Prior knowledge:
The protein contains 16 helices and 22 strands. The chain is an alpha/beta fold. Strands 6-9-5-10-11-12-13-14-15 form a nine-stranded mixed β-sheet, sandwiched between helices. Keywords: ATP-binding, Cell cycle, Cell division, Cell shape, Cell wall biogenesis/degradation, Cytoplasm, Ligase, Nucleotide-binding, Peptidoglycan synthesis.
Amino acid sequence: MNIHSLLNNIDVDASSLDITITGISNNSEKVEPGNLFxxxxxxxxxxxxxxxxxxxxxxxxxxxxQDVQALSVPYFKVANSRIxxxxxxxxxYNSQSRPKTIIGITGTNGKTTTSFxxxxxxxxxGRSCALFGSVHNIVNGIMISGTTKNTTIDALELQKQLAKSxxxxxxxxxxxxxxxxxxxxxxxxxxxxxxxxxxxxxxxxKTMESYFSAKETLFxxxxxxxxxxxxxxxxxxxxxxxxxKKRKLHTIYTMxxxxxxxxxxxxxxxxxxxxxxxxxxxxxxxxxxxxxxHNIYNAVMAFLTAKAINITPEDALQALETFSGVPxxxxxxxxxxxxxxxxxxxxxxxxxxHCFHTANAMGAKRIIHIxxxxxxxxxxxxxAMIDVSKSFSDVIILTFDDLNNLSYDEMLQTLYSFDxxxxxxxxxxxxxxxxxxWNMIEKGDWVFITGKGHExxxxxxHSDTFSDKDTVEQLLHNPLSxxxxxxxxxxxxx
Length: 494
């Protein structure tokens, strides 16, 4: 592509240049001859430091946001390299040339499960669907390897994959980080969903208002006749609805009490969960074959999305009843004595509450909770999470999650800094913590292992297993792998 055409939609002047650009890169190690290199001031490193390396690799032009000394290739200064990258990638790949409906989902919890539910409804209705999210990315029915480091992939890769997609529908999980870093920049969304908001990522956003504002910006990218779907059971959802109404959006669906577009009534917990979804003229019986109070809200959000894209209520309800769940999201493994192990990604106070409410509603004898905290992440939410666990759990086992940049001793000291009381234990090795719970449970107990969900372990533990699910399944097949003598640390609070 000629550089003049490529740069036409950003505020720079390349009219005097006659350069053919063969591709775009924001990683100097991946630059190929003829590429345009975009230097981004990142949080771990600054791309401007690698401009010369990019030129040596064959870059024909550079985009950046800092003043630089004379280069051997044209340099264009922009106000924000991330915004420029998104627009350049959209232009280069012509990513929305094929007609498709693009659905964006944001919120603290529920993005992944809701996206999987919508995808399931679409495919049961004979529609093709691409998916970009935290578990995996799928385009044209093929899973793309190596693209799930972040829940929302960067703008360059996302636009590239959108250009490849021949799918009728595209679902994108959109995080607050992705929005502030413009990873979905240049995308026109047909439907935007807001699931909820609770304290998370304040190490990055600093305040809840800033966190909310980041989420809200997704709705700035709704197309002219786009549809907003909002969970107003959450106070932040109600706030979002009020703001969007002032902007006079074309259509807003709200899920909440009787004053909203759709209300939820008569929730029943048996072998399956069931509820009534009601609008002004109709009521719909929704049955779910998987558990989790939070999944009620996720399912209704998916149902409203189906309505927005003209899938019949009957088809949507039937599809939801056959939905089997998502890896690492309220994933249940039955213990042989009649207890349940639940593996869930829950990592906020709100997510804990939904888990515990479900256990109580379904008659759990005892609740045993295994969880920890990630090094270098939002420390402000930790005490609230512990307080919720103390209120509902009969046994609490604090253990390691990802250490990130913390040492073993630093994380151990962190765990001991909390008062969990007599029901609390610290077992740093995550697999030993799970093994301890396996050996102590009784019939009717529910054991929640929260925080990692489907994610792989990032450090070595006693077991050679690679995830919470893998550890539980090893115990299922070899229950003697964690006898008391195998557990090296089991320390009660004094």
